[in-house]
Amino acid sequence: MCCEAQIRFGIPVSIGEETKEADFGQKRITQMKRRYALFIAFAGMITAFAPVQGQIQRTEKPPLHGKHWMAITGKPLAATAGAQLFHQGGNAIDAACAMLAATCTMWDVLSWGGETQALIYHPKLKKVIAINALGVAPTGATVDFFRAKGYEFPPEYGPLAAVTPGTPGGLCYMLAQYGTKSLAEVLAPALEMAAGYPIDAQTANSIERGKERIKEWPYSKKVFLVHQGKEREAPEAGELFVQQDLLQTLTKLVEAEKKALAAGKDRKAAIMAAYDRFYKGDIADEFVRGSKEQGGLITKEDLANWKPIEEEPLHINYKGIDVYKLQEWTQGPAMLQSLQLLKNFDLKGMGYNSAPYIHTIYQVMNLAFADRDFYYGDPYFKPKAPIQGLLSESYAKARAATIDPKQNNPQVLPGDPYPYEGKKNPFAKLLQQRSKQFTPDTESKKDFVPKHDANSTSSLLSLPDTALWASLATDSVYMDRLLRGTTSVEAADAEGWVVSITPSGGWLPACIAGNTGVGMSQRLQSFVLDSLINPFNVVAPGKRPRVTLTPALALKEGKPYLSFAVQGGDTQDQNLLQFFLNTVEFGMTPQQASEAPNINSNQLWLSLGGTKIDDRKPRAGSLLLDKRTPKEVVEKLKTMGYSIQFGERNSGPINAIYFDQQHGTLWGGSSNNGEDYGIGW
After folding, report:
1. What values do phi and psi take at 348, rounded to 5?
2. Distance CA 443, CA 620 (A)
3. How far apart are alpha carbons 136 and 166 in whole angstroms?
4. pLDDT tens, 331-360?
5. How many CB atoms lie within 10 A of CB 532?
């Protein structure tokens, strides 16, 4: 990675720590003319080179540098928790688990009852390990059950939206297997925070916005609405927020570990004794009781039977870089599919964020997401997704050939990867029926911004004030969806351990299970009830939903190269794809790449939000651009069939670590869209 980004786009972005002038001379233009025919060459010259001659500025946040370790996550206090573990001699697993525990305690934007998805680089084995700590649908969570209640998708909120908790088990498993510290040491920051920490404005205001729903659940009301009866019932920013029930739950975990150690158990067994107390002991009893009291389905058997799974990740090679993602129970393979497709295009030649570049990225993502929306699901349930075919270069080449370089395709459909595995597609008739029944919404949405589960309010800032506030005032459901999110955790150490986590679930407004202080997950809504939408992701007891949560790791020449993750629902792999291309194709540093302007597509089935088909159908041609996009680019894209909206920051927030093998140091990046924060040493 070079220190200067070759940005070919007329908007202010960083090219290193010193301001530089971009030089796009006649020689380069001549090379472009020779390389590209007709449309690509013409459009590329207009959009990539003409607008501005090098309007360059520093990144808004400084880059992070470290020699020994790096800790990055969604809140400054949580990053500090990771730094504490590093200073105590812990490794990256210890620090990552401390940050995970702290973010759950801070409700950023998740809870202890949510789910954890992780990729770990093991320096001794020299391999990437995947951790699946996603909960499962509880007993009784069937298609018939939800349809009888009038749902077309499982509900968004409340106890009926919950899968079994995964984060406590995932944390204990990672720490026991690959960490060095005790659970007591790792949970110490979270315990102190549960006893009372100065709550941040973002979380406090989220509680206030969601207080009417919070009042539906007695245990949530008790925890969150600390000023009941007053005009503002949520905590004030900076007020000490005390979670006595959660403190007791976390204390019970530490007590279980201590008791096991006193009985002669080794470190791993002692940590797993705490695990057992959560899933099989008195914590489980209270969790189930509190869930059922409020109408939930989770049983004691559901908790006892659930276990985290250590898996082999999926990966592809892109220009000498091995990119790793979790299996198809996440949307992660969509990024791998996108990279396979992009091997068929000269992105550098198009010019960074030129009209042809944006068009190509949009079309490629739509192809990958069309496959995601039909073929991805829990690999431990039948039918088994044709993942080998989906990730094959031959399949990608065939799909790439369908892209029209001049026009958006509003009718992108799932492909047929089965022949690339030497098989016949058992869902051919279903696909035909699906294409007839579900047509994308092509209506232009004047004030449309993608309603993924973690777009920030900055995405709306381009709207006229009257339209913005009228919309928010009259559509509280939209506002609620808009502000939901998750977080990410990135950690690396001098020994070579690397961790990339995208945890989530139990975001505000959350339903707390009894007196545990633990917010229940809302991930059940990512299932479908109709096999016509996705036969691989139909809800069933014991099954995992196909989630959006998708950490990433990349190796180069067998060594760590990039560790990166982002929040943002269906936009996650859109933003991670562009972040990766920013570094690999255009030489940006992690901070530059995390702040660079991304595009977002909503021509896909939403994974969260709404319980009706029309809430989630693809919106063909809907394209979200950075508000600084040059007029020439915008006008060109309009002629290609796009309905364009603008946002101030569309990049994440992305958190990342780059491994500078030349100098033996770490570079960190944490985007300027949110409260994400990193510390290095």
Report:
1. -60, -40
2. 8
3. 9
4. 999 999 999 999 999 999 999 999 999 999
5. 15
